Amino acid sequence: MAFQNRNMSVIAYANAFTLWHYRSEDTIEMIMDPKYFTPMYTLVNVGDIIILNCPNVDGMRRIVSVNKDAVKLAELN
Questions:
Q1: Residue 61 burial (CB < 10 Å; 0-12/13-18/19+)?
Q2: What class, spelled out in words, does domain 5-75 have in CATH?
Q3: Which of 32, 57, 58, 68 has the smallest CB count inside 10 Å?
C-alpha cells in the first residue's frame, strides 16, 4: 500500500512544531522508506514527531530531513 493522506492527522501544533498521528496497514519497514511520506513534504518539518500505528509496530518517529524527494524518519531514543 502507499501513504494515505486521510490517515494522517495533527494532534498538536506549537512554536513551529507539529505532533502528528498516522495509522496504516503498512508495515514499519514500508513506512520507514524515505519516499513514503513525500506527499506530505510541504506540510512536515524537521523535528516534527509522528506517532505511528501499524501492524508490526506502534511508536514514535522524529522527522530528520525533508525535501521534495524524501521525508526521512529516525527512531526516537
A1: buried
A2: mainly beta
A3: 68
Residue located via cell numbers 521525508: 71
* Side-chain-facing half-sphere of 72: CA atoms under 13 Å: 6
What's the first-to-final CA gap in the chain, in angstroms?
A: 28
Helix (H) or strand (E) holding 31: helix 28-31
What pLDDT, in 10s, does the model give residues 55-67? 998 999 999 999 9
Locate cell 524527494: which residue?
A: 69
Pairing outcome for strands 49-54 and 17-23? parallel
